[in-house]
Specification:
Largest sheet: 5 strands, parallel
Strand order of the largest sheet: 2-1-3-4-5
Distance between the termini: 14 Å
Number of domains: 2
Helix content: 40-55%
Number of strands: 12
Oligomer: single chain
Radius of gyration: 20 Å
CATH class of the largest domain: Alpha Beta
Shape: elongated
Order of helices and strands: EHEHEHEHEHEEEEHEHHEE
Bound molecules: calcium ion
Strand content: 15-25%
CATH architecture of the largest domain: 3-Layer(aba) Sandwich
CATH superfamily of the largest domain: Response regulator
Number of helices: 8
Length: 232
Amino acid sequence: MEKIKILIIEDEVAIADLLAYGLSNEGFETVKAHTGEDGLREVGRFKPDLLLLDWMLPDQSGLDICKKVTATHNIPILMLTAKSDIKDKILGLEFGADDYITKPFDLREVIARIRTILRRLMQASRQVDETLEDVIRFKDIEVAKSERQVKKNKQMVELTPKEFDLLMTLYSYRGKIFTREELLDFVWGYDYFGDTRTIDTHIQRLRKKLDLNDMITTVFGIGYKFERQADF
Ligand code: CA
């Protein structure tokens, strides 16, 4: 069970609580830190996938934290700044922050920005994966990625383009739990305002066509994942 982990470094307890609450509802795992020192300790302990960093903290500046984190870790940073601190925003982006959001913020916008950063990262790592191997094999399935062909037990299986993309997305991040919204973003694109039930019907068809009930599993209340072969 691997949720995406987000560390929130924010000294205003009410804001930190609101963020933690909103992000947990979206299926993220969160930890809060109220000082820079605590935050840096949690970077090492909690090992977040993304950092939500307030720029004005009681003990050190967001910029200092940004520098320290990016010097030793490869963690994307979304900074939270006051509306007036334009200079800070530019500095932050120069020192490795990925994006910023101004206070007061809309929680939905924070979530959308986080998704954008994570999607960019995943697309980058997927490209790496694609250059490594063109033919993938699992169970009795063989996928030729560049030809977008799928065989089961040496017999060609017809998948629609979206079914193929869905399969490749899930496979590329074996073990990762995707929410339906994430899969919609990934496979259908950010601007697609479809119903998340679209995902369910596509998953069902994929499972049926390739007999993958045991590999593409439902994570109750969250979404779907492709089982790692080691777990299998
Ligand atoms: Ca603050």
